[in-house]
Model the fold of this input.
Amino acid sequence: MVALLLDKFGGQLPAWSDRLLPDGQGSLALNTYLFSGELTGWRQPKLLRTLKDSTAKYAYRLLSKNPNDTTITASDSLWMEFADADTTVLHSPVADDQFERYYFAAPSQPPKYNTRARIENGDHAWLLGIPGSGCTPGVVVTGGGDTTQVGNVTARPDAGGSDYQPGNSIFLTPIVPTGSMLVQSVSFMPASTDGLLSFHAVVYSDLNGSPSELLGTGNRVVGVTSGAVAVSSITNGVSVISDVTYWLGIAHDNPVYVTIADTRVHNGSTISNTYSNGPPAIAAATGGGAVWQMWGDLFGASVFAARAYVYTWVSAYGEEGPPSPPAVVNGWSNANWTVSLFQPLPENMGIDRNITKTRIYRSISNQQGQGTYFLVAEIPVTQATYVDTIDDATVSLNSQMESLYWSEPPADLKGFRAFPNGVAVGWKSNEIWFSEPFRYHAWPPTYVLTAEFPIVGVGVCGNAIVVCTQGSPYLITGINPSTMSMTKINLPEPCLHSGSIVATDTTVLYVSQNGLMQISQSGAGSNVTEGWITREKWQALIPHRFVRAIKHATSYFAFGTKVGTDASVARQGFTVELSTEDQTSFTIWPQPGGHRLGFSQLSSPNNYDIDNVEVDPWTGVGMLIQNGGIYYYDFTDQNPTIVPYKWRSKTFQQTSRRNFEAIRCWFSVPPTTPVQTARNVNEPQPVLAANQFGIIRVYVDDTLWTTRELRTSGELLRIYSGIKGEMWSFEIEGRVNVSNLQCATSVKELAMV
Done:
């Protein structure tokens, strides 16, 4: 007497012979969901929303604004739709980004981005990146210099006459410097001639509009001539500062006549002073004197300098581009430096890009002679010129230019992924590109790394980037994009599809022609299915074109998808067990081989071609794009509609030829299962009908021998008599939850199972 009991159900192990499988594993598993050990099918995905564009192949949900609504069905969710199935979308890495920007790239279009407000308003996206101007700014230097005359240099034509100054006195006039300067000398215009007159210059500070404290004196000069300028130089000069009043004067011993410069006002001051005793340290002046033709010769703090000017363009969101070529011009530092600027192309000011400002920078050299660009001004992009009169001391307090080596991303960037520290990593051809941290608009070419083979896509796990190519994969590690290191992994397994790349917390997986490849963040590479799916079975069981996958319910969940008019694999899929916990989830099962879920095949739910397989980034919910809609797997539904499944047992080889006589199948009926309609028990049931719980097929020596319908759990089902065989297997096609299947060579024996 022989009896069989199947009370644990597992997936396929295609590398194993059907006769050598552990008792619970299946030789066929289609649409089976075997996580509990029972035999049941995957739940039917639900329609989440109908696409606005029925031809869209990728959809991305923006996070709900309601912090209490964290479900994928959030009522205020906003969706973006894309025609390219290979589109990748990144959310802004900037903390509390006031614009809430979203960035997207695809092989069919250049990288773009948009703000949430614009997306809500239906406004078009902007091209990502800010270009640099190829036009050198124009710079014209006017005025300035290292000396200047301050005071009453010339006399008004209507002034006329002269003013008598008695001997042993000092006459002074006020000045207000326009910058930090040195008083080098004091000059005046005598209106009399005296070859014996001795004089020298004096400089006083101001106190409430009168001379106050002596700051310096000039050298002694003897003799003056009427109409000839008389000058007294001040050794080392007297320092004065901008916008402060000072008093310049002449101390003399003999009487002298001085030319009057202006009769409209009287702002001069005089001091009675014994010349031989020198000027007083604190003045006791008398005001209301004439405006004498007297002035100071001042040496400015300006220097004859070489400056380099550049400018950058800035978007309305503060995104800055690289600088223009520099204009190097020489001139006095206190001159007027007029900078002429070029505007972006019209399409960059509101059509393709949102450039609104221009930033002007100029170079300042440190003590070692190294030049750095400092911000001079930020002006509207429509402003054509700017006059720079700011001194170096002020400009050096401004921010330094950060965008010297920045660039907009290449237009043919195929996609990008988010990397820790606010960095985006993108790929094209055989090149890996990196953005500046927290600046997805800036992609310095100096950061580019190259691989030996064309790049299919990348995956990010931890602080590692796995580059999947048409040859061997690569591992990139690092923190700062300027110091990334790249290592070739000695695993010659090409990645077949960018959509097959799935990143977990510790590994990156992708489909190769020989199996499912796994690359860890340490760089260890392996074929994770090679031990239980042979290469020839892998080639036969999975779609090898247009594969798109996600990590779903601890499995690698993949479908072939429709591309263009090619729907040849658009309804074929598979799952591969990923969780190592499955190997020890039962104390005595599975048997050697160590896989419970193993490999399972999938058919398209809803019977529509599949355009894409996705994961909602905010909830982790798996989604399908098909039939112009977004369908999602709702695991919160405790009574889901079950997709009909098909499962076949291993081949049970008997020690002699036998005839099994009876079967019992114990199952539960989900509430959403269609109501069963009575059928003729003797009618063959080759295919599961819409109104059936399930059917059981019995194969003898690989030939279908008996088909029975499941109607009542535990019901005794007879197997046709008249045959004996060594090889027996059992197939269940159904939509109910099967807990066990019992089979025996007699009804009496069945009662003892």
User: Anything to note?
Assistant: Residues 248 and 378 are 41 Å apart (CA to CA).
